[in-house]
Write a structure and sequence with these properties.
- This protein has 377 residues and is α+β, with helices and mostly antiparallel strands.
- It has one domain (9-373).
- The protein has eleven helices and 18 strands.
- The protein has helices at 9-13, 41-44, 68-80, 145-159, 193-200, 207-216, 222-226, 233-240, 266-280, 313-326, 329-332, and strands at 25-26, 35-38, 59-67, 106-108, 114-115, 129-134, 137-142, 161-169, 172-173, 176-177, 231-232, 250-259, 287-291, 294-296, 306-308, 336-344, 347-356, 372-373.
- The strands form four sheets. The protein has a ten-stranded mixed β-sheet. It has a three-stranded antiparallel β-sheet with strand order 1-4-5. It has a three-stranded antiparallel β-sheet with strand order 9-10-11.
- Strand 4 and strand 5 (114-115) form a beta hairpin.
- The chain is globular.
- Residues 1-52, 98-110 and 112-121 have low confidence and may be disordered.
């Protein structure tokens, strides 16, 4: 899922080496897809989120956030293979684009309140797009890290609820997700849904690139050299400095899942996962999960994000031959280790939980059990 685009490099690679992948000026839709509130510049130009009080209500919400390019892949993939309502990937399908006509709009005001209009579709290129799926589930299609974090705060305030689960589906690399810090800085610019779909299924990363990623996970400067616009730990710190009370919008046992390739790999991944947890969460039962392998999120993975990685030359050759033809993540998926960040004695730390089939996206915490494995050397 990524870069030159390879299977799991889909979510990682496109971010690395050949990445291809408002306002809260929004539209609102009711129907099978839920209620759509989409975004725009109003949100980012509003008064500092820090001045908006956190919700006092005890209601809880799940937010499924998807980078726009990855969302385009899901939209196209769903048309090739109907995801169905019980597929975890369904949460990441954006509404269809508008072809013509005026769209009623909803606006997220500077005080965080929302005025809603109605429309079955969203304007092409519009972002963020916020879809109320009902039953405490909200989907967000986003372009930048700033847009994402300010949008989830606005949603929590508007819903008078706290965030219990935060799923982030994006391209990734060790210690970062591949989105720009601010909107308007995407490079390359927006691709078509079909292009994102073909990139995802093109081929696997080659052995050389895979080992370069593994080695790069050990060096702090790696991402700045090899990712077009990384949202690494420093980027997260800068954006969150503008939202100093963001922790108050999460529940005491909030679960954050990075549905992205390789984010938790190596010392870079460890540092990122533990520190992002500390930036966003306060609760002693809260946790953050990141992957140490390439992620797999197509139609064949209804349980959540699966995994893939290089094991040996024979396995890589086989997978490179069948994957672009069969276009099915499940056929070549593997078990992998998930990095789990949690609080111990009041401080954030992490362990690698091995032998995992999927990173699931619900409220249930990951239980390490007897599966804790050592850090790779």
């Amino acid at each position: 899922m990524a870069g030159k685009n390879t299977m799991r490099n889909k979510l990682a690679a496109a971010a690395v080496f050949a990445f291809a992948l408002c306002p809260v000026n929004a539209v609102c839709q009711t129907g099978l897809a839920g209620t759509v509130l989409s975004g725009g510049d109003d949100l980012l130009s509003a008064q500092p989120i820090a001045k908006v009080p956190a919700p006092r209500a005890t209601a809880e919400i799940i937010i499924n956030a998807t980078e726009m390019g990855v969302g385009g892949f899901h939209r196209y993939d769903n048309k090739a293979h109907d995801y169905g309502k019980n597929n975890a990937q369904s949460a990441h399908i954006p509404p269809d684009h508008a072809e013509s006509g005026e769209l009623a709009k909803a606006y997220i005001q500077k005080d965080g309140s929302v005025k809603i209009g109605f429309s079955p579709i969203v304007q092409k290129g519009q972002h963020p797009v916020v879809v109320d799926q009902g039953k405490g589930v909200v989907s967000v299609q986003f372009e930048s890290l700033e847009e994402l974090l300010k949008t989830i705060v606005a949603v929590a305030k508007q819903k008078q609820a706290k965030i219990a689960v935060f799923n982030i589906n994006a391209h990734g690399a060790p210690g970062m997700i591949a989105v720009p810090q601010k909107s308007g800085n995407r490079f390359p610019k927006e691709k078509t849904d079909e292009a994102n779909y073909k990139d995802y299924y093109s081929t696997y990363f080659g052995k050389e690139r895979i080992f370069e990623l593994r080695e790069g996970s050990k060096h702090p400067e790696y991402g700045l050299r090899h990712i077009w616009y990384p949202s690494n730990l420093q980027t997260w710190r800068e954006v969150i400095s503008e939202i100093p009370d963001i922790k108050s919008y999460f529940t005491e046992d909030a679960q954050i899942h990075f549905l992205a390739c390789l984010v938790g790999l190596g010392p870079l991944g460890k540092d990122f996962t533990e520190n992002v947890a500390a930036l966003l969460l306060d609760g002693d039962k809260a946790a953050v999960q990141t992957s140490t392998a390439f992620g797999a999120v197509d139609w064949s993975m209804p349980e959540g994000m699966g995994f893939w990685d290089y094991q040996n030359d024979e396995q890589l050759k086989h997978d490179q031959e069948v994957y672009p033809v069969h276009r099915e993540d499940r056929e070549t998926r593997q078990k992998a280790a998930i990095r789990l960040a949690y609080k111990k004695d009041g401080k954030w730390t992490s362990v690698l939980v091995g032998n995992q089939d999927f990173m699931t996206t619900g409220r249930k915490p990951l239980d390490p059990g007897n599966n804790i494995v050592p850090e790779p050397q």
